[in-house]
Amino acid sequence: MSQVRPIGYKAYSPRPFLKKDREKVEILFGGLSWRAENVLQALFENLGYLARPLPPPTREDLMLGRELADIGQCCPTSFTAGNLANFLRTETDRIGPDAVVENYVYLTAGACGACRFGQYRQSYELALRGLGLDSFRMFLLAQDELDQGEIAGGGIEMNMPLTIGALWAVLCTDVLQSLEYQTRPYEVTKGQTDKVVRESVDFLCDKFRKRPYRGKKLGVLVWHLTTNYFVDALREVFDRFKAIEVDRLQAKPVVKITGEFYIQTVEGAPSYDIHAWLENEGSEVYPAAVATWFDYLFRIRAQAIAEYVGIKPRARIELARIKGLHYLYGWAYNRLRAALRNIPHEMPSQSELRRLAAPYYHHRLQGGEGDMLIGKALWAHLRNKAHMICELSPYGCLPNTMSVGAMAGVLGDHPDLLYAPLEVKGDAEVHALSRCQMVLTEAKKRAKSEFEAALEQSGLTLEMARERLDAMPEMKKATYHVPGHGWVGIGANLVTELARESGR
Ligand code: SF4
């Protein structure tokens, strides 16, 4: 009698990607904003790789991701798996499966637990198998290691020049994005901001492509921290923004975007294009910075080490090292921000986020954005950073579901906090946007009454304020930094500033 031998589970193990193949194999990546992805592509080129970001994710990607991978997974998994699968499928039709598995590799960030982020790779594997591309190579890199050395057979070196460069690419594009979102809603000539941003991204790409070589170890970090190379590049970007005329004498609600990392970062289909939608509805969007995520990674590493002080030898030294790096990271961000005259939003302090969230969410619950969603909502509300919070919660996301639940307690204590949690599942747009619309109506009212209060307090009418503004052309440039006077909206702060300026 023949015996059936059980087939055991075999973990995916990609064929090596050799150094000698670098010139003909293209590295695919994605999951960030188009600005960061473009600059990262230039960084890869700087290091001698062929690389390209995947096309912007679409609704079709979501559907394909659901079809090919686990249907019950969170929607960012479906979007990213489908995005990769759609690209590879199109390429398979064009050049055939053998050429696809030879010509491309996919590079993505990964982690273990506590949410589905730790299982993305399994979803990709499933999708690849469904496409008949089992031998396609995909490589995972840890998101919290600066020097992972050679991976994948030497074809990719996850070393300091790449990881530090990637960090700076994210920081530079974050501050640019923040300036962009504070300009576009007020631009006088429609489309001018987008044009300047496109040119600025191209310019930054050129700078990253030509980044000088500074070794492979600590010298790279020291150079990035001390050089004026990126600061000067951003100053040139700032000069381009000077040409944009803006009219900030308007009462626009500021809407802070929070939520799951992927959904809040990738503008477009994964978030129902909420950024553009909110702007079309007359808001100023306060986008989510990727820089804050890395800031959080520093914090959770420090939190974990702190628990071993007095137990594990050298824990105190390691804690001091992480805290030192964390400080330098914040300092580097602020340096780049200052190159854009501090108009980009500041990074909220991690200790303040933790403190604000503490009564509602434990700081050691680390899935997704952890306690940051609660902390950010309270920070934006209590510190007058936004009129309203729009939290993007993916369908099937456990950490976000917990945050939304904990927010019930926050709203009980802060009933005046305008909060719109949107469940994002890719195909329930009308429902999500109409929910957002309801809270936005309140935010608009709030922005309007704040603007009127600013006029009344300064003793100006709108006409008088406009006359004064017309007499000060510098204040009509996108590069004019409106000082904060305790109001949330830029229009209200401008009114107070105009009253002060003319009183001088
Ligand atoms: S945070 Fe939520 S949406 Fe994001 S990977 Fe984890 S489970 Fe999925």
Q: Name the bound molecules.
A: iron/sulfur cluster
Helix content: 40-55%
Q: How many individual β-strands?
A: 10
Content of β-strand: 5-15%
- The pLDDT mean sits at 93
Determine the CATH topology of the domain at 19-158: Rossmann fold
This entry's quaternary arrangement is: single chain
Low-confidence segments, given as residue ranges, are none
What is the element layout, followed by pairings?
Layout: E1 26-29, H1 34-46, E2 50-53, H2 59-68, H3 75-95, H4 97-103, E3 104-110, H5 120-130, E4 137-142, E5 149-151, E6 156-158, H6 160-183, H7 192-209, H8 218-226, H9 229-241, E7 254-259, H10 261-265, H11 274-280, E8 284-286, H12 290-306, H13 315-339, H14 350-357, H15 372-382, E9 388-394, H16 398-413, E10 419-424, H17 429-458, H18 462-470, H19 490-503
Helix pairs in contact: 1-6, 1-7, 2-3, 3-4, 3-5, 6-7, 6-8, 7-9, 9-13, 12-13, 14-15, 17-19
The protein binds iron/sulfur cluster.
